[in-house]
Model the fold of this input.
Amino acid sequence: LAKTGDHLGIWLIGAAGNVATTVAVGLAALRRGLTAPIGLLTESPICRNLGLSPLSRITLGGHEIARRTVLATAEELHTQSGIFGESLLRQVRPDLKKLQSAIRPGIKAGHGVRPAIEQCRRDLRQFAKSRGLSRMVMINLASTEPLLRVGKQRKWSDLERALAKSGEAAIPPSTAYAIAAIQENIPYVNFTPSLGANHPAVLDLAAQHNVPVMGADAKTGETLLKSVLAPMFDARRLDVMSWTGTNILGNRDGQTLREPRARAAKLRGKDQALSMLLSENAQTHTAIDFVGSMHDWKTAWDHIHFRGFLDTKMTLQFIWQGCDSALAAPLVIDLARLADLHAQLGRGGVMSHLACFFKSPMDADSHRFFEQMQILQKYLDSARAERRR
Ligand SMILES: NC(=O)c1ccc[n+]([C@@H]2O[C@H](COP(=O)([O-])OP(=O)(O)OC[C@H]3O[C@@H](n4cnc5c(N)ncnc54)[C@H](O)[C@@H]3O)[C@@H](O)[C@H]2O)c1
Done:
C-alpha cells in the first residue's frame, strides 16, 4: 500500500454485525450530511490539523461468517431497536450495498489456521487494489470468542513453526486475523474481549513489521462510567466498600455472552478494570444477562456502597440505558483514523495512548478515564507538531 494519499480502507471483522452495520450507516449518513458527528472524537477540536483521513475518503470492507447481509442487519436495527429512521436507511442503502459487495467469508474457529491466514491476506490485498486504497486498518468487531488456553510461544518464529507443524496451533480466529493484518503492514485494533494481537509471539511479529496494534474490548458504557466515577471517590477520599453491577442486554452480543466461556472473557475485563480502580479491600461483582426483548439496548444498574467521615455509610446508584451500537460505532471510526495516524507517523507496536477507548487496554498504566484522556491529548499535541515539520 502507498504511504501517501488519503483514501483509507477500514476492514471490519464481523462486517454484518450490529456495530459494523452501524459504522456503515453512520459513515454514509455523515458523508451525505444527514447527521452531525456527535460522539466522534476525531471530528472535535482536539483532533484538528492532524491530517486524519477525511470521512469522505473512507471505504469499508470486511470478513463475515454469517449469511445475514448488512442490509438485513440494518433493517433489524431499525425495526427492533429503532436506532435509525426509515428515511435515513433508504438514503444510505447504496453505501450498505457497496459494503456488502466487499465482504468475504471469514475465518471460522477450528479450521486450518495457516491457509485461512493466507486467504485473509489475499482478501486484504484484493480489496486495497480494487478500491485504489492508500492505506488500511483492520478492526475486529466479531462475536466475543470463548477464553482459550493459547500456546506459550514468545517469538513469532516459534509460533510460525507451530502453525506450520500442526496447522492447528492454539490460536483463535481473532489472532489469525491479527497475524494476517500485521503481515500486510495493516494496523490491527481489537474492539472485542477476544485475544486478537495480545499474544507475545504476535506482538513480536508486530514489532518486526513496525505495525501498530491495540485492544481490548471497547469502553462504551458501564465501564466508562466506572472509570470516571471511581477516581472521584478516590479524589474525595471516600472509601468504596463494594461496587456491584448488573447488565442486561438483548442483542446477538448478549446472546453470545450466554456461553459461559465467552461471558468469562467479557466479565474478566469489566471486573478487572474496577478492581484496579478501587482499593483491594473493596468487594466487586459484575453480572451480564441476556434479555431478548431489549434488542440492541443495554441497561446497567450499579450499586456503590461507600464510607465517609465518621464512618458514615452512603450509597450511590446509577442506571445507564444505552444503545449498544450507537455508543460503539463512533469509537470504531475514531480508532481507525487514530491507528492510521500512528502508522503514517511511522510508528508501530502497542498504541497505549489509546487506552481511554478500552476496558482492558494493552500496556496501559491507568484505568482512570481523565488520566487516559490526558495521555491521548499529549500524544495528539506531539503528533500535530510532528505533522507540521
Ligand atoms: N456495542 C458495544 O458497545 C461494544 C462494546 C465493547 C465491545 N463490543 C464487542 O463488539 C463485538 C461486536 O458486537 P455486535 O453487537 O456487533 O455483535 P454482533 O453479534 O451483532 O456482530 C458480530 C458479528 O461477527 C460475526 N462473526 C463471528 N465470528 C466471526 C469470525 N470468526 N469472522 C468474521 N465474522 C465473525 C457474526 O456472524 C456477527 O455478524 C462483540 O464482540 C462485542 O462484545 C461491543
